[in-house]
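ugh ok fine here u go
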Amino acid sequence: MSAHGNLLHHIYKFNGRCSLLPSENLWLRPTFFAATSSPQNYSLNSGLRLSSFPSHLSSGGMSKSLLIGKCTPDNVSSETPSNHASESPKIQEEPSLLTILTGANSILPQVVLASTILALVYPPSFTWFTTRRPSAIFAGYVGQFVVKPLLGYLFGTISMTIFGLPTPLAAGIMLTSCVSGAQLSNYATFLTDPQMAPLSIVMTSISTASAVFVTPFLSLLLIGKKLPVDAKGMVSNILQIVVTPIATGLLLNRFFPNICNAIRPFLPPLSVFVTALCVGAPLALNVESVMSPSGISVLMLVIVFHLSAFVAGFSFTGLIFRDLPDVKALQRTLSYETGMQSSLLALALANKFFPDPLVSIPPAISTVIMSLMGFSLVMLWARRKEPAL
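structure:
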């Protein structure tokens, strides 16, 4: 071994045979052990680096060559160049999303510790989960996307089999039952039971977010055999109608509060004006159908549909949560959530994806009937609560 301690000898055993690669075939320079006089000869990486420079580079005549042990099987000649020496190290693949999700339980102790500290430092970060009662949220979701679509399918089928109405009108009733909850239900809940308003907002938010996929699926399931349904197009359209405006509003409020404060006074009248246009346009285009006996039948079916949804939400909640002290308030809240839905969304989908204008008539009628029936219940239940106040 030289004074600089630069020579390394790597010998690898393979099937009991080893051979030395001639020094003129391949040279390696040790990056940690070589003491060269030129700074550029150093490598910042650990290990050994392949190079093809002459064997005498440093001062003092010291050779930086290394003898590399080449291991070959018995049936390979020692004169054959080694492929193993020239192979570059494999790059480690990045973990996939599935791998990350599968190993998520490994951070459970840290999550528990962080949750404990956050709950002690800022209790409202978790009290919403206990006070809102996940079971009530789930019940509201079932009423929105299970009970109401079943009622819509029932009354849509009745409209064709008993009343003999055209298929597009029945499809309009079913489409109305497949959309998410209406924001008016939050306002109605606030007027009747203010303490339940946060719960109503959570239920409406969850149904609105999931409507991107649930509404097209239900529409395809209930209407697909009667009329062609573009489920993929509905997903994209609901994203544009629902998710994009909400995300835009949140970002504007976060980063441009002054602009939001400036335009906020003009938004309520603008929304009323747009709602009037959305409701009046399909009715005006189909005034003859609306005023005909079939139009009266659709009106009655929409009224009975909403009435059944209000009653179902109120009754089922009373049966499931009858032991709770505030069951009456919870019944009213879930009744609003089940009976009131975003009929304007159904109207927009009907105008966009169904060429027959008759499909848009039930959603347009529903917009009016749902609002009138919901706030009629607000006045009724508010009067009944007055003596107790």
